[in-house]
């Protein structure tokens, strides 16, 4: 492998590991946070979190990716300085507009959500949009130069400071008896401090590098061209990566309001929304594999596509989609099987388990959407994923409006699953038109269904057997034992069934985490012709 390609793959691996750590932190901290603040406090935080999620997505995936491409295309120092300064001006305008809209529009947004007490929290989180230009441009510059460490360190630093501050401030404020709205402000302050921490890390690298981003006197580039690519490709890329956050935003806008409209008291509606939001960390954890695949697959497919290696493109597409589907099915059905005990293990009680079980079916479709979008972006199709996701958000909003007043939070879960199913189908249809692929064959689907059935039977038999031996007095401790043991038993049965039936070829297994070990295991239990 050539030196430049090795360095590129090394850099991609660094960013993938950083993204993995961030996703885990972002999902896991919500569990102790909910335990500290309860369902009402969790509702308050989740109502405002999507605004931070949008700022994070733009400054981590959208703009830096596009800036890095612009920088990588140029060798002259003056051209790079022009790209950086022009990009900074453009993102500053976008960040300023988003800050203005969020800060001054906070009363209107809070009223739209049906809770005017959220105004101050929305105004607090709006400051994250002012940090966005500095972080986006510096990350994009280093990634374009092939130096992924600054971006990775800043991302991990940002999330570490954020998570630590959120949990610490929440615990202190709750223990001193402050209102949950003030606790929510403290948690959001942690997000701002995390963003500042990530920014200062990047400033440190820039100072060490002695790079001056000042506006150059001469350059052959045109500002309009750079702005156009940032506006269209940068934002379109971002829409795909932010799908989970945008779905949370839709729920924040009309779920609580719909529950109150259905006849619940404001307090009961907040509790129900907080219970429903327990599904978010489960969804994030369930889609980590798909997120990692999307980060790896885009440069691989893009490189093969640019070199017109269509056989390699088809191979990467088939491999990524099959892995995403199988892992998504296993994660979704596995969680459905143990939703009641895992709900109690993580969140202290079993409230809303049936709603969360339906919600977790979206793990499969969100995994497919993330992977399908990444594949299309890899071959230069930026518009299709964006409009498909925009349509999905519209369907989700309308679905909430129609179903919540009749079904409560179950209506929100159903609208999430159905809208994501439609988006998945649209993206798959687009890929089928582009490449004659045979991924989701009847044989493959039958084998996956058999594996999920074997997993389900083994988990349910295990839970049934444990019900005759209530040897642990504490219900939450009992649920913890059931959850962890069921994950181990169900996971082993699912992996064994998948490997035994030969769903994956050796090169596809190698694409998975611990792929080498999986190949060795597969060769022992499945005789390949």
TrEMBL record:
GO CC annotations on file: plasma membrane
Signal peptide: none
Membrane-crossing residue ranges in chain numbering: 12-29, 49-67, 88-109, 121-142, 163-181, 187-206, 226-250, 282-302, 323-342, 354-375, 382-398, 410-429, 449-469, 481-499
CDD domains reported in the protein's UniProt record: MATE_SpoVB_like
Family annotation (InterPro entries): PG_synth_SpoVB, Poly_Biosynth_Transport, Polysacc_synth
Membrane topology field: Multi-pass membrane protein
Keyword field contains Transmembrane: yes
UniProt keyword terms in alphabetical order: Cell membrane, Membrane, Transmembrane, Transmembrane helix
Main localization of the protein described in the UniProt heading: membrane
Subcellular location: Cell membrane
Name of protein: PST family polysaccharide transporter
Originating species: Oikeobacillus pervagus
